[in-house]
Amino acid sequence: MLSILRMGGSQDSAAGADVFEVDLATIPGGDDDVPPVVMLCITAIERRGGLEMEGIYRIPGIKGEIEKLRLHFSYGRPNLDDEEWSDINVVAGVLKLWFRLLPGSLLTKELFDDFVAGVDPSKSEIQKLQLTKGVLARLPRRNLNILKYLVVHLNKVAEKGALNKMYAETLSHEVATRGRHYHHDAAGRCRRVHSQKLP
User: Fold this and answer.
1) Helix (H, G, I), strand (E, B) or coil at 180
2) Burial of 97 (0-12, 13-18, 19+ CB in 10 A)
3) Which span out of 58-62, 110-114, 128-132 was modeled with the highest average pLDDT?
4) Is 127 a member of any domain?
5) Separation in Å, CA 94 to CA 57, 90, 138, 165
6) Of the candidates 2, 33, 32, the residue with the CA atom closest to the CA atom of residue 177
7) What pLDDT is recorded for position 183?
């Protein structure tokens, strides 16, 4: 889910300011803004054929290149169409890294257990959807908007499963936040809530 900076890219981040491991509440911009690293990586993956690429998010990019791209993000918005970043698995790796290094869960520590409770197999599908929708409505606005953006993207990836071999269950094991993987049922619940309009 993460070289994004080309030295000729726009320079709207403070030089040397790491945009990873940063509390969402401290990121400049309004609550409706999706952080550039998330938007740029997802846009590049979708525009450059990543949705159809077998093993996207499963096949790792070269670690050194991922770290290099992460460093570039410290200086602004890199040009991901640059040949230097031709390996789309590196871009996907940076996206995953950004989510994994969040200081807290995107679902927040306070609401994570409530979200997990919303996929209790003893509950009916309607109950699960209602519970999940209720928890999502309590998320901070920025967290919710990032989650919406991510879920829409992962939906597109899953829809191309016949080509990329990355179905919902596989994606749930590959995309994580703060090192905590979304259970495949929870991930599916998010997608179904999204289809009914997230709050």
Assistant:
1) strand
2) buried
3) 58-62
4) yes
5) 10, 6, 28, 21
6) 2
7) 42
